[in-house]
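User: My instructor asked us to take a sequence, write out its structure as tokens, and then describe one feature of it. I'm not sure where to start. Here is the sequence I was given:
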Amino acid sequence: MTRNAFSNNQYLKSVKIMDGIPAIGNYAFDNCQNLESVVIPNSVTEIGEYTFRDNISLKELNLPDSIEKIGKYAFANCTSVQKLHIPNKLKEIPEYAFNGLTSCLELEIPSSVETISNWGFQGWNSLKNLNIPESVKFIGDKAFSRCNIQTLVIPDNVTSIGKQAFNYCKSLETVVWSKGATTIDAQTFYECNKLREITIPNTVTVIQSAAFSYTALQKLIIPSSVQVIGNSTFTNCQLIDVTFENPNNLITCGTPASKYWAFGNQNIGIALYCTSDGEYVDFATQGFKEAERIQVEGDDFENLGHGLWKVKSTMRSFPSKIKYSYNIIEDNPATVIGGEVDLIVKKTHKITFMCDGNILETKYYVEGEDFVFPNIPVRDGYTGIWNYDESDITGDKIIEVIYKALPVVEVDSIVIPQNDQLNWKDQFIFKDADGNKIDNVIFKGKVDTRKAGIYHLTYQVTDQWGGQMSGQCQVRVCSLPTLVGSDNVEIPIDTLFNPKGYFVFEDEDGNKINNVTFIGTLNSHQEGIYVLEYEVIDQWNQKLNGKCQVRVLRSPIINLDPDNNDSLNNDHVKDDLSDNNHKDN
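Assistant: Let's start with the prediction itself. The structure tokens for your sequence are:
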């Protein structure tokens, strides 16, 4: 297809290129602003320069894998494209080839690509995820500038990254980069405002000017391989912790003679703590490394050592800014870090932590923020807690330790009837130091209430103060009472009948049970068969109900239980002896 074949045609809405065409010439569909779809056949192996540039209505680019070469600006500023397939035979992404695809949500770079040229994917501000394949060796200037990526992994094979390659990626937070490149070029990550973490490869020897300027870096390790750091390389970051693995290898760091510092001003808000004892700036609590070496400019502050500076009492009002500085590498003015930062006034209270009348620690905390308690001295058999009212943490306070005895078990052994329901937390009783029942108990073990026996459980109990106790408890599942002997007896007529003397019940331990009630009517003067109902209750409150039979036979009167007279006229078993002179006919 020839050069400029349909260039600037505003009537085209769709294009289907005939099969058999091997190439699409330069500017063939350049600036066709109403072109919405294009179908490219597998016969095409080359797309020229500026071929589909500024096709702002095109929504999808499905480039066949037959394509081996794409010219510069081929698809630049196709701002409506949301989906793109890059051919898997391409070795190079030319300059500006896919620049300005602002609506594209995904990017899959094939593993055939070795070079991503200048401005190749610049301005993809809808792109959040980027996967650069291991095949890539070169990334050009501004190749991914102004993209919306959040995490970046740079492959080990990348040996060169151009100027401003990732600058203005304002959502970028983390860069993983282990080895490969020897130079980090100028403004590579300039104004990546959210970038807080990066590992500089130990192959890097040169970091050019403003490479990380205006990022959110707070902690930085400079590998021993680095020899040159350019002007303003790390200015206007948030650095508070910088380490040189081998400072002796550093040859150049900015241009101090011209007041072009490599680290320079850091955009940090420093807290000004206003306490009842005075006003302080504490660089150590802000996380500054080597805080004791920090110097503060002016006569308004008194150095108390260890990074703590006190506002002098002669001041009539709080300062709004503070100028500080220190050399990352001691005695090396080229590595000076600092600047003029805002002071953030924080109302602060003093807490004195005490135990047994002794001061453990004094701390200052900002009103409205959580504070950290010091460790409580250990006391065997007790749990130490801080005695304070959480609803009234204002003003200076003295907070003392009180000790609470560990939980105790009051009932660790229970007996339950067979087939009864086991409710562990109600039947085992644990109490805290104040005598309150503890419900926070974890039991481990199994109890089968269908089977009589002794079962052991382990428990762990935790009281309201965090005190813990563990141990073992016992559950005894008892079998029901049993009738000793037969439930069918014979007695002679006119016998003074005591059912407890004939029907004996025992518990699981073989003890005789006296709590037995018989219900029914028996006439010992009348021959016949009598059925009585009984209810037996043992010491564990287990009940046994059943029936027994008494057969009265014609026979002389015999007192079978002369020593037990209380049963002759049992309230429930009625012995019909209305005629003491009754005789058999």
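For the description part of your assignment, you could build on this observation: The longest helix spans residues 424-427. Try explaining in your own words what that tells you about the chain.
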